[in-house]
Amino acid sequence: MIIKKVFNNNAIVAKEADKHEFVVMGCGIGFKKSVGDVVDESLIEKTFILKQKDASEKFKLLLEHVPSEYVSLCYDIIEYAKNILNTKLNDYIYVTLTDHINNSIKLFDENINISNPLIWEIKKFYNKEFEVGVKALEFIEEELGRKLPEDEAANVALHLINAQLNSSSTNVENIASQTKKIQDILNIVKYTYGTTLDEKSISYERFVTHLRFFFQRLNKNTKNENEDDFLLKQVKEKYKEAYNCMLKVEKYLETELSDEEKLYLTVHIQRVTHR
Predict the structure, then answer these.
(1) CB atoms within 10 A of CB 180
(2) Mean pLDDT, the chain, as a whole number?
(3) Beta bridge pairs of residue 156
(4) If residue 88 lies in a helix (H) or strand (E), which one and from where to where?
(5) pLDDT(250) > 50
(6) Is position 200 within any domain?
(7) Residue 122 placed within a domain
C-alpha cells in the first residue's frame, strides 16, 4: 500500500496495486511521510472506500480544510447509522454530513443558532433517523466538547433521509416536479448573477440538497410560530444581491416564504455564487 497524497499527520490517500485510491486515517499515519512511501498499516484506524468517483473527489476536497477529528467523528456517526437503520447509504453522505457538521460547529462557536422548522415532523415521521441524530450530538459532545442544540439532530436526520432517497416508495411524479423546480431556481440564480455555477463544488451540492428538503417543507406548509427576523435583517443588509435573488425565487414559487426559508435561501445563494 503506497501513499498517493498526504493531507495532514492523520489522513492520507493510499493505493494498492491495481485498485482504486482510498482515504486512510490513523494517528500519525501521515507524520513525516511523502508521496510514494509505504503506508504503515499498523496505524490504520479508518478506511474510506467511496465507489462513486465524484463523491470520492469531493470527500478528498473536504479533507483539505476540515479538521481530521471531525471527519473521523462523522465516519463513526455514519457507521452507527448504517447499523441502526439497517440500510445502505449513498456515498455522498460522507461528503454532505461531514461538510454540514463542520459548518454547524463553526456557527455554534460564533453563537449563531439557526432552527430547523421541520424538527417536529422529523421526530414523528422519521423517528429512527432522528434518534441517530440525537446519538450523533452525544458523539459530538463527547469528542469535541460542544453541546449542539436539538435542531442539529433533525439536520443530521435529514442528511440520512436524503442518503436513502433511492427508496421504492418515493413518489416519482413529485420527484420529477421538484427536479424541474430546482432547475428553474438554479436558472434564476444564474441569470440574476449573469454567471455559471460550479456544479462540482460543495456549495452547489449543499444548495441542491437544501432545495430538495425545501419543497418537502413547502408541501407540509411548515411554519415556526416564534419566528425571529433579526438574522434575516442582518443577512438582507450584508448580502443585498443574494436577498434580491431570493425574492425572485419567492415570486416564481408564487408563495409567501417564512423568514427562516428566506434566510436559508439567501445564505445558500450567497455561498453558491461566491465560492
Answers:
(1) 10
(2) 84
(3) none
(4) none
(5) yes
(6) yes
(7) no
| Number of domains into which the chain is organized | 2
**98 occurs within a structural domain:** no
In a domain, 35, yes or no: yes
Residue 144, Cα to own-chain centre: how many angstroms?
Answer: 19
What is the grid cell recorded at 236?
438582507
202-220 vs 53-62: helix crossing angle, rounded to 10: 110
DSSP string, 161-198: HHTTTT-TTS-HHHHHHHHHHHHHHHHHHHHHHTS---
Residue in the block written with cell 450584508: 238
Mean per-residue pLDDT, 19-46: 85
Count Cβ atoms below 10 Å from residue 219 Cβ, excluding itself. Answer: 10
Burial of 176 (0-12, 13-18, 19+ CB in 10 A): exposed
pLDDT value, residue 225: 46
Phi-psi region at 60: left, alpha or beta (left = phi > 0; alpha = psi -120 to 50)? alpha
Alpha carbon distance 184, 182 (integer Å): 5
- Domain hosting residue 177, numbered range: 172-274
CATH code, 13 = 2.30.24.10
Question: What is the side-by-side strand order in the sheet with 46-48?
Answer: 2-8, 11-15, 22-25, 46-48
* Sign (positive or negative) of CA dihedral 222, 223, 229, 230: negative
Note the pLDDT of residue 22: 81
Per-state percent for the chain, helix, strand, coil, to nearest 5: 60, 5, 35
Cell of 159: 442528511
CATH number for the domain spanning 179: value is 1.10.1790.10
- Greatest extent of the chain over all pairs of C-alpha atoms, in Å: 59
